[in-house]
C-alpha cells in the first residue's frame, strides 16, 4: 500500500526534528548535518528508527539542505552521492522496523529568486531537479517540500518534482505570526498555487509552535480540497548551555495537535525541537479520533504570489487596459520594450479597484513569447493582483504560465478540438483557470442553446483531463449590438443559463457590445449592469472609468454584497461632501477646492495621458525602477542632489518602511521600492560627482551568515536597505567563521555587526561568534536575525538586539550610530 492509499484509510504521521537531535548526538557547531549521511550513517539510521518506533509512518530523508549551491562535487560532496546515502539510511531503518515510507526532503536553496534576488527561476528548478532525480533513483517513496517562505521558489521545487519523478508530492510553507510568508503569500494564495499544480498534500511547518499555527491550519482545512499536513516546532526556542531547547513538552504538544486532528488535519508531525517522544505522544492521543478525507471544495480561484481571488461570492473586475488594441502609447511602449509604462498602467488599475489584470502584448512583428514573459515577470514584481495571460500564441502562453508566480487565469480556450488539446494539458501541468469561449469549429452559435451546448462540450472534455468546471470561466461572447440587435439579449440569456443550468462561472468582455456606437461608455455601463443582474461572475472592463465603477459599486450596495453599504459610503461619501463644499464656494464666488482623490483618479484615467507615474516619491512607493531613474533626473532640474535625497528619497523609503512594519507593505514591495530608490540614488551620485559633492556615510555595518549556514536571503535584504539609508556595508557572505567576523570587526573598529542564521543547527555558531566578539571587540553592538530566533533566544545568546525583519535592522543600526543605543 502506498502513502496515498494509506491516507485514504486513516490519518498519517510524519517524523519530527532532525538538527536539534543530531546536536545531542554529537553534531558540532557549523558542521553540516547532511554530511553525516556519509560520515555517521549509523546515527542517521538510528534516528529514523526511533521515529518509526514512536509511530511515524513517514521519515524524512536527511536531504533538507542538499543542493548544488551548498554542496559541490569538487569539494568532495557530490549531490547524488549525499542523496543516495540519505536514502540508504532511511531504507535501512524501514527494513529494520518493518514499516514506513521514505520522503525525499527538499528545503529552500538559501537564495532569493529574481527580481528580489539573483537566482533565476529555471536555475532554481534545475537545482531541485538534480536532487529529485537522485532521490527517485535511490528509492524515495514520496517528496516533501518544506519550510518554504517564497511561493516562487516553492513553484520551482514542485515543477522539478513533477517533471523528474512520478512520486507523490507534499508541500508545506512557513508563516510568521500574522500568517504571512517571507515574500508576502498567505494560506489562501499558497493553497490556490499548490492545488493548481496538483500536489497531493499541502500544509504548514516550522517557524511557529502548534498553538500559533492552529488558526492558519484551520483556514487551510476550510478551503483545501487535498489533505493538509502540519509539522509545527515545539514552541519557541532558547539557548541552554550552548544547546537549543524548546518550551513545549511532548504532552502539551500532543494536546494541541489533537485539536489540529479534530479540525480536519490529515497528517501530523513535528519540526524543530520535536523528538520521537513528541511523535509518540501525539500518535497515541490522535490514533483513535474519527477520520475522513477532505471533500472537494469546487472553488474557482486564481492567485498571485501575494493574494488569492475567488470567483462566485462577489462579481470580479478584470482590468482590460494592458492590451495594445486602440492604444498607440501602449503599442509604442511594447515595441520599445518600455516596461515602466506598462507597469504604471497596471498599478493604476490596481488603485482603481481591479481584482485581476488582463495582460495582452500581441502586436504584429514582435517576439510575443519573449515580450509576454518579460511583461509577466515585471508586473508580478510590483503588482499584487493575479494576472490573466491573454494570448493566442501557445509558446507565449506556456512560457508565461511556467514563470508566473501563482495560479493564473488564462485567456483562452474554446470548444474546438485543437484548442482544448493544446490548452488543457498546460492547465494540468502548470495550474490555472481559463476563460472558455462558447464557440467551436462551427463558429459562434447564434442562439443561447447553441452556446450552452458548446459550454457542455468544454466541461466534458476538461473533465477527461482531470480539470473541474470550477477552473473554467465561460465566456458567453458579447457581440456588437450595432450589427446584431438581439446580440446582447442572447449573451445575457447564455450568462443566466450557464449559472442556473450548469452551475458554472461566467466572464464577459463588456465593451465589445458598444463597438461602432458613439458615447460607448453609456452602453457599456448599462450592459454591465444587466449582465450583473443575470449572474455574471466577472467583467473584463476599464476599472478607471467612473461610469463602470459607479454601476459596479451601486450594484453591490443594492444586492447586499456591500455590507451596510460600507464600501459605497467610503468612496462616495467624501465625493458628496466635496460637491457640497464646491457649490457653497461657487455661490460665494470663491475658488473651488481640489477634487476628491477618487474623482481625480477616475477623471485622469479617462484622458489619453494616463499611465505616467507622478513624481519621484510615487515611483519609489510603487517600486518602478526605470521610472525612478527618469523622475530623479527631473527632480535634479529643480533641486540639488542632496536636497532631493533628504526631501524625497529618504521620506519615501521611510514611508515604505513604516508600511512594512505595520503589515500593509510586504517584502516584495519593500525590495522593489529599495531597488527603485537605489536607481534614483545612482542618478544623484552621478550628479554629486560632477558637482564635487558627496553624501555623508552614516557608518559601517558588518553583515554575515554564521558558520555552517548557507542561507543568506535575510542578510541580503538587510544589506539592500542599509545601503539605501546611507550605511557602508561590509558583507562577509555566508558560512563565515567566528574568527573572520571578529578579525574584520577589530580591523575596521566597526560598531555594528549583524549576524544571520536560518537553521537550528547553526545557532550555536552564532552564539560562539557573539562570545568571541564580546571578548575581542567589546565596543561592537550585535544584532541577530533568522527564522529560528526569537527575542528571548537572542537575549540568551548575548545579542544586543533581535531584529525580526530588515526595517528593524535599519532602525537598530541608526540608533547605534546616532548614539541613542547604549
Description of the molecule:
The chain has 31 helices and 25 strands. 49% of the residues lie in helices and 14% in strands. The model is unreliable at 591-613 (pLDDT under 50). A hairpin with a 2-residue loop joins strand 8 and strand 9 (243-246). Helix 5 packs across helix 6 and helix 7 runs parallel beside helix 8. The protein has five domains: 3-208, TIM Barrel, CATH 3.20.20; 301-545, TIM Barrel, CATH 3.20.20; 546-605, no CATH class; 615-691, Methionine synthase domain (Methyltransferase, Methionine Synthase (B12-binding Domains), Chain A, domain 1), CATH 1.10.1240; 700-817, 3-Layer(aba) Sandwich (Rossmann fold), CATH 3.40.50. With 822 residues, it is of the alpha/beta class. The termini are far apart. The longest helix has 25 residues, at 667-691. The chain has an eight-stranded parallel beta sheet with strand order 1-10-7-6-5-4-3-2. An eight-stranded parallel beta barrel has the order 13-14-15-16-17-18-19-20, surrounded by six helices. Strands 22-21-23-24-25 form a five-stranded parallel beta sheet, with helices on both faces. The protein is globular and about 80 Å long.
Amino acid at each position: 500500500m502506498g502513502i496515498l492509499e494509506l491516507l485514504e484509510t486513516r490519518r498519517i504521521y510524519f517524523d519530527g526534528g532532525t538538527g536539534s537531535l543530531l546536536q545531542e548526538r554529537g553534531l558540532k557547531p557549523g558542521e553540516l548535518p547532511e554530511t553525516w549521511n556519509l560520515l555517521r550513517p549509523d546515527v542517521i539510521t538510528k534516528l529514523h528508527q526511533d521515529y518509526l518506533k514512536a509511530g511515524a509512518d513517514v521519515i524524512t530523508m536527511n536531504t533538507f539542505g542538499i543542493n548544488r549551491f551548498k554542496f559541490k562535487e569538487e569539494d568532495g560532496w557530490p549531490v547524488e552521492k549525499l542523496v543516495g546515502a540519505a536514502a540508504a539510511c532511511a531504507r535501512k531503518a524501514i527494513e529494520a522496523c518493518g514499516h514506513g515510507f521514505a520522503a525525499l526532503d527538499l528545503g529552500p536553496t538559501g537564495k532569493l529568486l529574481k527580481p528580489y534576488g539573483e537566482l533565476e527561476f529555471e536555475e532554481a528548478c534545475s537545482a531541485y531537479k538534480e536532487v529529485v532525480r537522485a532521490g527517485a533513483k535511490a528509492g524515495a517513496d514520496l517528496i516533501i517540500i518544506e519550510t518554504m517562505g517564497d511561493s516562487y521558489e516553492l513553484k520551482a521545487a514542485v515543477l522539478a518534482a513533477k517533471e523528474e519523478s512520478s512520486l507523490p508530492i507534499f508541500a508545506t510553507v512557513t508563516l510568521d505570526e500574522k500568517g504571512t510568508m517571507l515574500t508576502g503569500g498567505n494560506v489562501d494564495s499558497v493553497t490556490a498555487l499548490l492545488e493548481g499544480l496538483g500536489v497531493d498534500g499541502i500544509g504548514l511547518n516550522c517557524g511557529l509552535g502548534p498553538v500559533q499555527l492552529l488558526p492558519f491550519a484551520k483556514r487551510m482545512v476550510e478551503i483545501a480540497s487535498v489533505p493538509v499536513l502540519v509539522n509545527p516546532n515545539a514552541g519557541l526556542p532558547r539557548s541552554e548551555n550552548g544547546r537549543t531547547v524548546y518550551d513545549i513538552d511532548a504532552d502539551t504538544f500532543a494536546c494541541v495537535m489533537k485539536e489540529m486532528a479534530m479540525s480536519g488535519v490529515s497528517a501530523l508531525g513535528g519540526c524543530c525541537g520535536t523528538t520521537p517522544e513528541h511523535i509518540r505522544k501525539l500518535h497515541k492521543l490522535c490514533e483513535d479520533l474519527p477520520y475522513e478525507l477532505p471533500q472537494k471544495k469546487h472553488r474557482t480561484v486564481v492567485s498571485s504570489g501575494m493574494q488569492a481571488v475567488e470567483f462566485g461570492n462577489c462579481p470580479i473586475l478584470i482590468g482590460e487596459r494592458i492590451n495594445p488594441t486602440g492604444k498607440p502609447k501602449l503599442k509604442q511602449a511594447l515595441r520599445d520594450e518600455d516596461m515602466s509604462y506598462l507597469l504604471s498602467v497596471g498599478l493604476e488599475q490596481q488603485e482603481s479597484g481591479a481584482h485581476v489584470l488582463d495582460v495582452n502584448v500581441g502586436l504584429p512583428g514582435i517576439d510575443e513569447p519573449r515580450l509576454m514573459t518579460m511583461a509577466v515577470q515585471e508586473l508580478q514584481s510590483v503588482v499584487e493582483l493575479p494576472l490573466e495571460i491573454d494570448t493566442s500564441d501557445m509558446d507565449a502562453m506556456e512560457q508565461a504560465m511556467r514563470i508566473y508566480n501563482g495560479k493564473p487565469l488564462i485567456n483562452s480556450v474554446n470548444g474546438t478540438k485543437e484548442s482544448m488539446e493544446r490548452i488543457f494539458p498546460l492547465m494540468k501541468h502548470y495550474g490555472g483557470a481559463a476563460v472558455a469561449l462558447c464557440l467551436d469549429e462551427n463558429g459562434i452559435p447564434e442562439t443561447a442553446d447553441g452556446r450552452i451546448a458548446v459550454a457542455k462540450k468544454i466541461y466534458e472534455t476538461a473533465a477527461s483531463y482531470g480539470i473541474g468546471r470550477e477552473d473554467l470561466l465561460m465566456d458567453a461572447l458579447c457581440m456588437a449590438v450595432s450589427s446584431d440587435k438581439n446580440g446582447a439579449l442572447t449573451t445575457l440569456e447564455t450568462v443566466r443559463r450557464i449559472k442556473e443550468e450548469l452551475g458554472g462561472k461566467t466572464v464577459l468582455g463588456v465593451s465589445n457590445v458598444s463597438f461602432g456606437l458613439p458615447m460607448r461608455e453609456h452602453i457599456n455601463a448599462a450592459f454591465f449592469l444587466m449582465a450583473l443582474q443575470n449572474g455574471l461572475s466577472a467583467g473584463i472592463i476599464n476599472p478607471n472609468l467612473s461610469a463602470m465603477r459607479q454601476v459596479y459599486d451601486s450594484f453591490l450596495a443594492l444586492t447586499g454584497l456591500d455590507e451596510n453599504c460600507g464600501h459605497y459610503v467610503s468612496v462616495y461619501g467624501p465625493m458628496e461632501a466635496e460637491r457640497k463644499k464646491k457649490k457653497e464656494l461657487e455661490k460665494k464666488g470663491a475658488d473651488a477646492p481640489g477634487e476628491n482623490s477618487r474623482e481625480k483618479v477616475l477623471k485622469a484615467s479617462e484622458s489619453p495621458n494616463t499611465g505616467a507615474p507622478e513624481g519621484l516619491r510615487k515611483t519609489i512607493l510603487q517600486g518602478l525602477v526605470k521610472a525612478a531613474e527618469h523622475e530623479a533626473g527631473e527632480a535634479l532640474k529643480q533641486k540639488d542632489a542632496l536636497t532631493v535625497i533628504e526631501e524625497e528619497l529618504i521620506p519615501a523609503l521611510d514611508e515604505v518602511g513604516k508600511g512594512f512594519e505595520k503589515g500593509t507593505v510586504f517584502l516584495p514591495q519593500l525590495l522593489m521600492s529599495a531597488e527603485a530608490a537605489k536607481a534614483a540614488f545612482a542618478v544623484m551620485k552621478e550628479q554629486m560627482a560632477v558637482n564635487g559633492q558627496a553624501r555623508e556615510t552614516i557608518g559601517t555595518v558588518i553583515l554575515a551568515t554564521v558558520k555552517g549556514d548557507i542561507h543568506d536571503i535575510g542578510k541580503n535584504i538587510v544589506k539592500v536597505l542599509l545601503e539605501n539609508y546611507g550605511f557602508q556595508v561590509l558583507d562577509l557572505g555566508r558560512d563565515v567563521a567566528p574568527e573572520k567576523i571578529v578579525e574584520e570587526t577589530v580591523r575596521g573598529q566597526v560598531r555594528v555587526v549583524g549576524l544571520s542564521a536560518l537553521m537550528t543547527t547553526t545557532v550555536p555558531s552564532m552564539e560562539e561568534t557573539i562570545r568571541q566578539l564580546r571578548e575581542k571587540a567589546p565596543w561592537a553592538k550585535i544584532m541577530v536575525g533568522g527564522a529560528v530566533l526569537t527575542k528571548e533566544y537572542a537575549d540568551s545568546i548575548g545579542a544586543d538586539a533581535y531584529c525580526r525583519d530588515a526595517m528593524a535592522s535599519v532602525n537598530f543600526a541608526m540608533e547605534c550610530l546616532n548614539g541613542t543605543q547604549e
